[in-house]
């Protein structure tokens, strides 16, 4: 395959206007998932749960693969797998070291189960591949309603616990001493995270869900440390990645996930460049010498 053929496979905009209505549900789902991913991604970064997102995604993949094999709703299967994984991680591992050990044990088990279920599935190969890498036209009306309904529930719950969860995420020991139910909040957040992972897999796939739940928040924190602007930027970056990825994938013959991850990674690189420029400018700026008590300030000859 030469360069022209590779470019044509990635970017082909023939009959683009006629194809656009086919991804209407995916665009709505992508915008909702961008909002959800941008919000919950900030807490994922604050609580150092990037590895947990990957572990939950593997169990969610196993649940979706089993639902596909059994002829059940794939979104429902993905939700069951994610919530079970999130509950296990929330109940068994509070500290980062314990949590990472549990994820390291559970993650390959979930991946193995998912591969087993897909190997037994005798339907279309595109359905198998879509669970791993996402599908641009996989969101029908029923799935869209379920996805939007679940996303609204997660966003409302996250809004209700926003302040105590922020306190517990910043300093768990101090929050517990002040009477904040740290363990309960941790388990509840893991369940919300599990639902968010299951919903995201429907668009970007199990392998690349990190690009939606982690990269936008990480990029936002590179350019600002203020909570409000960081959350806003995280949501904007996540929505741009997902919706932009869907629009680009419509003009190509490859799955949606490479487009989403490339846009998300490009945004992160730009934010990292801005952060580096700021750091370099601060290091070059002259420091004003503070007056030393008891020492005369030179006034010139």
Automatic annotation (TrEMBL):
Topological type in the membrane: Multi-pass membrane protein
Principal place of residence: membrane
Lineage: superkingdom: Bacteria
Entry annotated with the keyword Plastid: no
Localisation: Cell membrane; Membrane
InterPro entries referenced in this protein's UniProt entry, alphabetically: ABC_BtuC-like, ABC_TroCD
Regions crossing the membrane: 27-45, 66-89, 101-121, 142-165, 185-218, 230-250, 256-275
Pfam family, one: ABC-3
Alphabetical keyword list: Membrane, Transmembrane, Transmembrane helix, Transport
Position of the signal peptide: none
The family this protein is said to belong to: Belongs to the ABC-3 integral membrane protein family.
Name of this protein: Metal ABC transporter permease
Taxonomic placement: Bacteria, Bacillati, Actinomycetota, Actinomycetes, Micrococcales
């Amino acid at each position: 395959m030469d360069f022209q053929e590779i470019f044509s496979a990635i970017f082909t905009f023939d009959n683009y206007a006629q194809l656009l209505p086919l991804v209407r549900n995916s665009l709505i789902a992508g915008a909702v998932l961008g909002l959800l991913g941008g919000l919950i991604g900030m807490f994922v970064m604050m609580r150092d749960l990037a590895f947990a997102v990957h572990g939950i995604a593997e169990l969610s993949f196993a649940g979706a693969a089993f639902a596909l094999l059994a002829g059940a709703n794939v979104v429902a299967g993905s939700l069951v797998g994610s919530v079970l994984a999130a509950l296990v991680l929330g109940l068994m591992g509070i500290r980062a070291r314990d949590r990472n050990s549990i994820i390291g044990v559970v993650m390959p088990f979930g991946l193995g189960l998912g591969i087993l279920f897909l190997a037994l599935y005798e339907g279309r190969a595109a359905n198998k591949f879509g669970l791993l890498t996402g599908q641009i036209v996989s969101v029908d009306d029923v799935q869209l309603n379920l996805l939007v309904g679940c996303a609204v529930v997660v966003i409302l719950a996250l809004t209700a616990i926003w302040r105590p969860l922020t306190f517990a995420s910043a300093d768990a020991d101090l929050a517990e001493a002040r009477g904040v139910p740290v363990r309960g909040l941790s388990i509840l957040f893991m369940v919300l995270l599990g639902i968010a992972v299951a919903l995201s897999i429907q668009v970007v796939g199990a392998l690349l869900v990190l690009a939606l739940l982690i990269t936008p928040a990480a990029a936002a924190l590179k350019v600002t440390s203020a909570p409000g602007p960081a959350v806003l930027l995280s949501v904007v970056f996540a929505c741009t990645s997902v919706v932009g990825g869907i629009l680009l994938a419509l003009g190509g013959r490859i799955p949606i996930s490479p487009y989403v991850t490339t846009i998300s990674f490009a945004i992160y690189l730009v934010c990292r460049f801005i952060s580096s420029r700021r750091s370099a400018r601060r290091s070059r700026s002259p420091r004003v010498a503070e007056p030393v008590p008891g020492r005369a300030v030179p006034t010139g000859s």
